[in-house]
C-alpha cells in the first residue's frame, strides 16, 4: 500500500485511520523484559535534607572527605590527598582546630564533615581529575588567567600540565604579557604627555620594536624572523662543511683553497647579518643598559666579537696568512654559541 497517491491513483484515503487499519494491531518488534537491578534502579524522591551522599556514615569521616565547590559536592578519600600534602586540600588533613580549617576553606559543616569552597566548579573538576589520576588539562572555554588563579588557589604547579595544554597555556600567558606591556607603554606615554604616534621617530621606533621583538605583529616581523632562522641554518651548514678533513689540513698548513675562501665569504655574510640584528635590537631598546645586561644579549656579543677579533689578529700579523686559514677558532666558537642561542 502506497502512502502518497500518484497522479493516476483514484484510491480514497479519507476513510483510513489507525483504528480502521488492522496493520496497527500487532507489535512490529517483540518487547523484551528489562533486568531491573542490573542497569536500572527505580527512581525515588529525595527529601530536601538528603542527597546522593546520604549513605555517608559517621565512621566514614575518618576515611573520606566531602568537598563542596560552588554548590557541587564531591566525595573524596583521604588517601587520595596523601600524595599532595602541599595542596590546599592536602593541608586540610593537618588542621587541628576550627580556625585552621577556616584559613583554608570558606566554611565547614561539622555534622557531616563537609568543606565549602566558593570557587569555580568547572575548574575544580580538572583539579579533582589531577588529584585522582594525575592528569591536569587546560579548559578551552576558560580564560588562562582565571585558570592560573585557580591553580594558585588550590596549590597546583603549572608544570603538572600535560605538554599539549602547557604549550597552549604558555602561549596565552605570553599574549597577556604583551598586552599588559603595551598598555603600560600607552599609560606611560599618556602620563608624560607624549604618544608614540606624535613624532615620526617614535613611530619608526615602535615599528622597529614590533619587527624585531614581535614576529607575529605583521609581515615585517615575520620576514625578519625568517631571515634570522635562515642565516642560523646557513651558519650551521657552513660550520659543518668547515670541519671536513681536507679543509682542516689546509688550515693547519696555512693554505686557503677556493672552497676555503668561499666558506669564509659565507661566514662573513652571516656575521654581518648577526651584527645588524644586534644593532637593531640595541637601537629599539628603551633602556640601553638593561638591554646590555640581558643574558641573551651577552651571548650575542660573545658570538659576534670573536669573528672581529680573529680578523684583527690576522690583520696585525702582516698579511702572512689569509683570513680563513688561521689557527684561531674563536670565530667558529662564537658562531656555535649563536646557533645554540637561536
Automatic annotation (TrEMBL):
GO biological process per UniProt: action potential; protein homooligomerization
Signal sequence annotation: none
Start and end residues of each Potassium channel tetramerisation-type BTB domain: 65-164
Main location: membrane
Source superkingdom: Eukaryota
One Gene Ontology cellular component: voltage-gated potassium channel complex
Record-linked SUPFAM superfamilies: POZ domain (SSF54695), Voltage-gated potassium channels (SSF81324)
InterPro entries for this protein: Ion_trans_dom (IPR005821), K_chnl_volt-dep_Kv6 (IPR003969), SKP1/BTB/POZ_sf (IPR011333), T1-type_BTB (IPR003131), VG_K_chnl (IPR028325), Volt_channel_dom_sf (IPR027359)
Name of protein: KCNG1 protein
Organism: Neodrepanis coruscans
